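New to this. Explain these tokens.
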Amino acid sequence: MDFSQWGNPSKEWLAFAAANPALLARNEDHLPPLALQQKTNHSRTTIAKTLVATTGLGNLVATEDYVVSTRDGKSITVRSYRPILLGTKPLPGYVFFHGGGYFFGSLDTELFNCSWLAHALSMTVVHVCYRHTPHVSGLTPWHDALDGFDWVVTHTEKLGIDPSRIVVGGISAGGSLTACVVQNEVRRARETGTPCRIRGQVLGIPNLVNVNAFPYHLFADKEKSSPVQCADAAVIPKQRMKLFTDMLGHEVDPTNTTWSPALVDEEELRGTPHTAILVAGWDPIRDEGLWYAQKLKNAGVRTKVHIFPGLPHAFYAFVGLPSHRHWNEIMLDSLRWAVTEEDGWIVEEPPVMSPLMEKALAIGAPVDPTTPGATPADMAKSGNLLRGE
């Protein structure tokens, strides 16, 4: 295999980088892990709450939190987002796992992202907030994802979800959790002879193989594989990938298919719900997503792939980048596609958006906190855009 043709930085990115050197030079990895985590999550939360207030989404989408027990006797929280104007009738459900290297992220960092998805798609979005390193290690995030999903599918009536129209999806680290949940559900359905409870999955720039288990031998040239070709890429260069992996610990075999879901045998993928995968070309984890897509196709799974050539991991978080809006459009289209059996949208049309909400869509959500920490100036820029300034 060789996907290196997608890995050269695009003209769009090079122009953006030249115009924003200070933004891209910001690096806070020198901070102690807990300080880095707290600072990034606080910044993300402030931005998310500001955008929800400025767009008026708080008056359009209702949220509710639920405490869910986990297999180790602890608990996590899931938050549901539901369009208020659609009342209590069952809606398609989107079970969402955020990104952040299993290290960044919280319920509140995803407030804007989940709100605008619920509003734009007329879906009930359920954000499963798994636990993060360094507070936990090993397979705990994956186990939390499995426990959270099981709770959602057994409480669809409470959540106002049509149980026959559930999509699971995630970004970056959340893509790994998503793939794990879907594989587990397909296995359960096969072993019990009961229907799979997932209609489709959407994997955004997914991390699907532990960095210490990457199958270099399957690629035509190791130097052209994404971990090597994109080792110095913006946003998550090699040293940041190592930071995330090291905090998960090393007590689990990196080839464990819960930890590295792309390593599962192709035969095990048969029966997987149709899958949309979004991949950034200049990204150390690019090849994981494209290889997994190939394995799904070989297993007879209806698969749709969208590649953003020459763009780094989580590029969509940079508001000034033209492809920022394109990512948001592709994500919405992918979720619509994943929830349907046919190509058409089977739910009533989403509410007509006001000009203010159109601007919110253009801004989108900084859904992956692995990007450089936003400053108050960045937040003010987003607010000014929403106000038309």
About this structure: The domain at 4-386 is CATH 3.40.50.1820 (Rossmann fold). The first strand starts at residue 61 and ends at 69. DSSP finds 13 helices and eight strands in the chain. Residues 343-352, 365-389 have pLDDT under 50 and may be disordered.
